[in-house]
Protein backbone atom coordinates (compact mmCIF):
# COMPACT_ATOMS: atom_id res chain seq x y z
CA UNK A 1 0.00 0.00 0.00
CA UNK A 2 2.88 2.35 0.68
CA UNK A 3 4.21 1.94 -2.86
CA UNK A 4 0.78 2.55 -4.34
CA UNK A 5 0.25 5.63 -2.21
CA UNK A 6 3.68 7.02 -3.12
CA UNK A 7 3.03 6.51 -6.84
CA UNK A 8 -0.45 7.98 -6.52
CA UNK A 9 0.78 11.08 -4.70
CA UNK A 10 3.50 11.41 -7.33
CA UNK A 11 0.88 11.42 -10.09
CA UNK A 12 -1.43 13.77 -8.23
CA UNK A 13 0.13 16.95 -9.73
CA UNK A 14 -0.56 15.52 -13.19
CA UNK A 15 -4.17 14.87 -12.23
CA UNK A 16 -4.73 18.32 -10.74
CA UNK A 17 -2.69 19.94 -13.53
CA UNK A 18 -2.68 23.71 -13.76
CA UNK A 19 -0.66 25.81 -16.14
CA UNK A 20 0.35 25.70 -19.75
CA UNK A 21 -0.13 22.32 -21.42
CA UNK A 22 -2.01 20.88 -18.45
CA UNK A 23 -4.92 19.79 -20.67
CA UNK A 24 -2.56 17.33 -22.38
CA UNK A 25 -1.12 15.89 -19.15
CA UNK A 26 -4.33 15.70 -17.11
CA UNK A 27 -5.74 12.53 -18.82
CA UNK A 28 -2.45 10.76 -18.06
CA UNK A 29 -2.70 11.72 -14.38
CA UNK A 30 -6.31 10.57 -14.19
CA UNK A 31 -5.50 7.21 -15.76
CA UNK A 32 -2.47 6.66 -13.50
CA UNK A 33 -4.35 7.47 -10.29
CA UNK A 34 -7.44 5.52 -11.35
CA UNK A 35 -5.39 2.50 -12.39
CA UNK A 36 -3.49 2.48 -9.12
CA UNK A 37 -6.71 2.65 -7.10
CA UNK A 38 -8.36 -0.16 -9.08
CA UNK A 39 -5.30 -2.41 -8.98
CA UNK A 40 -4.85 -1.89 -5.24
CA UNK A 41 -8.49 -2.74 -4.54
CA UNK A 42 -8.31 -5.84 -6.72
CA UNK A 43 -5.14 -6.96 -4.97
CA UNK A 44 -6.60 -6.42 -1.51
CA UNK A 45 -9.70 -8.46 -2.34
CA UNK A 46 -8.30 -11.25 -4.49
CA UNK A 47 -5.18 -12.19 -2.49
CA UNK A 48 -7.08 -13.41 0.60
CA UNK A 49 -9.53 -15.29 -1.59
CA UNK A 50 -6.71 -17.12 -3.37
CA UNK A 51 -5.12 -18.04 -0.03
CA UNK A 52 -8.47 -19.36 1.25
CA UNK A 53 -8.91 -21.55 -1.84
CA UNK A 54 -5.35 -22.86 -1.54
CA UNK A 55 -5.95 -23.72 2.12
CA UNK A 56 -9.18 -25.55 1.26
CA UNK A 57 -7.35 -27.44 -1.47
CA UNK A 58 -4.62 -28.38 1.03
CA UNK A 59 -7.19 -29.67 3.55
CA UNK A 60 -9.01 -31.59 0.82
CA UNK A 61 -5.73 -33.21 -0.24
CA UNK A 62 -4.91 -34.18 3.34
CA UNK A 63 -8.33 -35.80 3.83
CA UNK A 64 -8.02 -37.64 0.54
CA UNK A 65 -4.52 -38.87 1.43
CA UNK A 66 -5.71 -40.21 4.80
CA UNK A 67 -8.61 -42.08 3.20
CA UNK A 68 -6.33 -43.76 0.66
CA UNK A 69 -3.52 -44.47 3.13
CA UNK A 70 -5.09 -45.16 6.55
CA UNK A 71 -1.92 -46.86 7.82
CA UNK A 72 -0.12 -43.52 7.58
CA UNK A 73 -2.71 -41.71 9.70
CA UNK A 74 -0.80 -39.67 12.34
CA UNK A 75 -3.10 -40.66 15.25
CA UNK A 76 -2.85 -44.40 14.67
CA UNK A 77 -0.18 -46.45 16.39
CA UNK A 78 1.33 -49.28 14.37
CA UNK A 79 0.18 -52.80 15.22
CA UNK A 80 2.77 -55.35 16.29
CA UNK A 81 4.24 -56.98 13.21
CA UNK A 82 3.57 -54.00 10.95
Describe what you observe in this structure.
This protein is an all-alpha fold. 76% of the residues lie in helices and 0% in strands. It has 2 helices and no strands. The chain has helices at residues 2-16, 22-68. Helix 1 (2-16) packs antiparallel against helix 2 (22-68). The longest helix is centred in the middle third of the chain and has 47 residues, at 22-68. The radius of gyration is 26 Å and the shape is rod-shaped.
Task: Estimate the global geometry from the Cα principal axes.
Answer: rod-shaped
SSE class: mainly alpha
- Strand count, sense and closure of the main sheet? none
Task: Please report the total strand number as a whole number.
Answer: 0
Uncertain runs: none
Strand content: under 5%
Helix content: over 70%
**pLDDT averaged residue by residue:** 85
Oligomer: single chain
Cα radius of gyration in angstroms: 26 Å
Number of helices: 2
* H and E order: HH
Give the termini distance in whole angstroms.
55 Å
Core attributes:
82 residues; 2 helices; mainly alpha
